[in-house]
Amino acid sequence: MTSLADTRPGMRMMPSTIGVVAFIALLHVLGWGVLLFAVIPAGIPLGGSTLATLGVGLTAYVLGVRHAFDADHIAAIDNTTRRLAERGKPATTVGFWFSLGHSTIVVVLCVLLTFGITAVGSSLADDSSTLRVWTGVIGPVVSGVFLLIIAAINIASLRRRRGSTGGPVLRLLGPIEKAVDRPSRMYVVGLLFGLGFDTATEIGLLALAGAATLTAIPWWATLTLPILFAAGMSAFDTGQGAVMRRAYTWQPGRRRLGETYVIAMTGLSVVAAVLIATVQLADVLVANLGLGGPLPWVASIGIDDLGLVLTAVLLATWAAVLLIARRPHAVAT
């Protein structure tokens, strides 16, 4: 049986990790470099004035950072990182690949807006358009189903740690689990999550890009906005995934405390994933099928800040166990 403590970074992870860091750095250099040393000196009015242009760039970056802490991002990255780490597989770059897939959708939409594909802009602005209706279903459904599946896999793996075979759930979901058996496979997951583009952060960025396009700003200047958005989101999604990989593979050195720690960390992520998925799927059912009963109440549960809360709780749990494990008078068990 593979334990979380058995996971080691391994030399083969180093090139990919370095490449990820280099790519994120390139996004920052490209986005901020073009904005500060090309757009502003050329007097291109992304925001109407030099200060406003800088503010627009900063807004795009902050939108990306905020999007990285969306509840579905955190839950998907945490649960996948935990599962890969538990199996002794590289998991440091899970957040990067997820954010890269998600960013692809946003960048493509901004490119279409930049090059004057007005049908995209009008469809995005119209909640009743075919594009918004279908993506409003596909994105949340993919997100909800994925979170439920990865939560079920993590629950089954916990049972296996306690001596069970994992039960029929693990056998049933085995083929699906193998489909995401390495960090790079999260690119497709992030891509599908991004199809919803119904969060305030994504809509805000698209509005910025659309407004810039209407003022006849050069295409290369407008594209600094999605690049800055992608830079912010990828940096924090990657950092979050790397930190949680360390948290999931760390062991306190005492068997009983270690088991409690693993159960607590996994339990928190699983509960959050199930809650987020339930709210997302309930919202789709209510909005598109008009179902009643308890579903409207479930759909109304606010999960906007749950990603930040989950991150804080997981880190606090890790910190608490660290302190307990390092108590000088603790008796090993």
From TrEMBL:
<keyword id="KW-0533">Nickel</keyword>
<keyword id="KW-0813">Transport</keyword>
<dbReference type="InterPro" id="IPR011541">
    <property type="entry name" value="Ni/Co_transpt_high_affinity"/>
</dbReference>
<feature type="transmembrane region" description="Helical">
    <location>
        <begin position="137"/>
        <end position="156"/>
    </location>
</feature>
<dbReference type="Pfam" id="PF03824">
    <property type="entry name" value="NicO"/>
</dbReference>
<feature type="transmembrane region" description="Helical">
    <location>
        <begin position="261"/>
        <end position="286"/>
    </location>
</feature>
<dbReference type="GO" id="GO:0015099">
    <property type="term" value="F:nickel cation transmembrane transporter activity"/>
</dbReference>
<feature type="transmembrane region" description="Helical">
    <location>
        <begin position="217"/>
        <end position="236"/>
    </location>
</feature>
<dbReference type="GO" id="GO:0005886">
    <property type="term" value="C:plasma membrane"/>
</dbReference>
<dbReference type="GO" id="GO:0012505">
    <property type="term" value="C:endomembrane system"/>
</dbReference>
<keyword id="KW-0472">Membrane</keyword>
<protein>
    <recommendedName>
        <fullName>Nickel/cobalt efflux system</fullName>
    </recommendedName>
</protein>
<feature type="transmembrane region" description="Helical">
    <location>
        <begin position="187"/>
        <end position="211"/>
    </location>
</feature>
<dbReference type="InterPro" id="IPR004688">
    <property type="entry name" value="Ni/Co_transpt"/>
</dbReference>
<keyword id="KW-1133">Transmembrane helix</keyword>
<feature type="transmembrane region" description="Helical">
    <location>
        <begin position="90"/>
        <end position="117"/>
    </location>
</feature>
<keyword id="KW-0812">Transmembrane</keyword>
<feature type="transmembrane region" description="Helical">
    <location>
        <begin position="50"/>
        <end position="69"/>
    </location>
</feature>
<feature type="transmembrane region" description="Helical">
    <location>
        <begin position="20"/>
        <end position="44"/>
    </location>
</feature>
<feature type="transmembrane region" description="Helical">
    <location>
        <begin position="306"/>
        <end position="325"/>
    </location>
</feature>
<comment type="similarity">
    <text>Belongs to the NiCoT transporter (TC 2.A.52) family.</text>
</comment>
